[in-house]
Design brief:
The complex is a heterodimer of chains A (324) and B (87).
Chain A (H helix, E strand, L loop, with lengths): L26 H8 L18 H13 L3 E5 L3 H6 L11 E3 L5 H15 L6 E7 H6 L2 H10 L4 E6 L39 H6 L5 E6 L3 H13 L4 E6 L3 H4 L6 H10 L6 E4 L2 E4 L9 H6 L9 H19 L3
Parallel strand pairs in A: 1-2, 1-3, 3-4, 4-6, 5-6
Antiparallel strand pairs in A: 5-7, 7-8
Chain B lengths: L25 E5 L9 H5 L5 E3 L5 E3 L9 H5 L5 E5 L3
Antiparallel strand pairs in B: 1-4, 2-3
Classes of the chains: A alpha/beta (324), B alpha+beta (87).
């Protein structure tokens, strides 16, 4: 490991606190990155778009899980890009199932492992996109949570059905332009607010629910680790940008994901045994407009609609962080 | 092409045969003197194509790099530059 003695003063930590690294405050990030598993279980060569945020979510989750894991995957972007026959990007046992039943198949895998007496050694992860989780796979997920299978469900949320060409889902935010909610004379984009999936899942009374973002990789990996360690079902909802769907340049995907958290459009928290805890509070609350203006899907919004969104975010912010 | 039963793929990580480097328009060039070894480029790479060499310096596997530019954008010390690919 290379030891760096002099850190230039222009270096700013953008990951933990935004302070200058020269102030030695942000060594936390550097030190923790060193502990991350260097082994890659999600191989390169997959067909993801350049700058895809969701592939980062896959890659980091597998780093935490290690090789003793069985992954079930609902249809969606990550399934399509990772497994064009006869190739696969997965280096762990992986099964593709229909759009709606990732959680149901994961329950079956978990039950089989139990019957074989291998449950202690092998973990089960179910992946699904936002469409495969909040819309289509909802009843299978709800059933699996109800039955209390010991598995982790990870929803990667890119806020629309990106794989089939950007149709709106229950997770699409207010005002976003998609092919099924196009802006025009009669419409300003998506009319509904984002479905609060983590709280719906938490209402099942499962031991662990968390929200994460790919822009905060250590926080995300910590949550996946916790989710894997609890007995019973756990749910992680990770916010991951889609470059063509959101209309952003490929290099901006992490920046925009970070701005979502800094503006309050996405809040990082975990609910452990019914106790809710915020894991990251932005030091400076950025205006929602800054986040919206970076993306093509929000470019048509007028001041009036931006105000609606800002008020919605302010309400949630006050609820979570208190008035300040 | 022989299709396995249930279309099973038995070779893990076989997507490595698909060299996605051909997609690239801009190529990342790492300036190791400016590198502060924070690992941001490595952890944010969607292709998992940034790794360390024996000296502990980061290097990019250009067979797979799609040139998205996340590494250059996220590098806190501006040690990575995106250079246009030219013949």
């Amino acid at each position: 490991m290379k030891v760096v003695a002099d850190i230039p003063s222009y270096v700013k930590c953008r990951h933990v606190c935004g302070a200058s690294l020269a102030a030695n405050r942000c060594f936390k990030f550097r030190l923790n990155v060193k502990d991350v598993n260097e082994e890659e279980y999600f191989a390169p060569g997959h067909r993801g778009c350049a700058g895809c945020g969701c592939t980062i979510a896959m890659r980091l989750a597998l780093k935490v899980a290690g090789k003793n894991v069985i992954v079930t995957h609902a249809t969606g972007c990550m399934e399509v890009i990772s497994s064009p026959y006869p190739e696969t990007a997965w280096r762990v046992p992986w099964i593709h199932v229909a759009f709606e039943n990732s959680a149901a198949v994961a329950s079956g895998v978990e039950a089989a492992l139990k019957a074989l007496g291998k449950k202690d050694r092998v973990k089960v992860i179910a992946f699904g996109g936002d469409g495969g989780t909040v819309d289509i796979g909802f009843q299978a997920l709800s059933g699996a949570l109800e039955r209390g299978h010991d598995f982790v469900y990870i929803c990667y949320d890119n806020e629309a059905y990106m794989n089939t060409g950007i149709q709106r889902s229950g997770s699409t935010p207010y005002g976003a332009s998609t092919t099924t909610s196009p802006p025009g004379k009669e419409s300003f984009g998506n009319k509904t607010f984002k479905k609060d999936m983590p709280h719906i899942v938490a209402a099942h009374g499962i031991p662990y629910v968390a929200t994460a973002s790919v822009a905060f990789p250590l926080d995300y990996m910590e949550k996946v680790k916790k989710a894997l360690s609890v007995e019973g079902p756990a749910y992680v909802h990770v916010h991951a940008p889609c470059t063509p769907g959101w209309g952003i340049a490929s290099e901006k995907s992490i920046e925009v994901a970070r701005l979502a958290v800094d503006s309050g459009m996405w809040i990082l928290y975990e609910i452990e045994n019914g106790k809710s805890r915020v894991t990251y509070k932005p030091t400076v609350k950025k205006p929602v407009k800054e986040y919206l203006r970076m993306q093509k899907r929000f470019r048509h919004l007028t001041e009036e609609h931006i105000d609606v969104l800002q008020r919605y975010v302010d309400e949630r912010w006050a609820e979570v962080f208190g008035e300040d | 092409m022989k299709v396995n039963i249930a279309a099973c793929i038995t070779e893990p990580g076989s997507s490595e045969r698909n060299k996605t480097g051909g997609w690239r328009v801009f190529r990342p060039v790492i300036n190791n003197e400016r590198c502060i070894d924070c690992g941001s480029c490595w952890i944010f790479c969607p292709e998992a194509c940034i790794s360390r060499d024996e000296k502990g310096e980061y290097e990019v596997d250009l067979d797979f790099c799609k040139g998205c530019g996340i590494c250059a954008n996220e590098c806190p010390s501006e040690a990575i530059e995106m250079v246009l690919e030219e013949k």
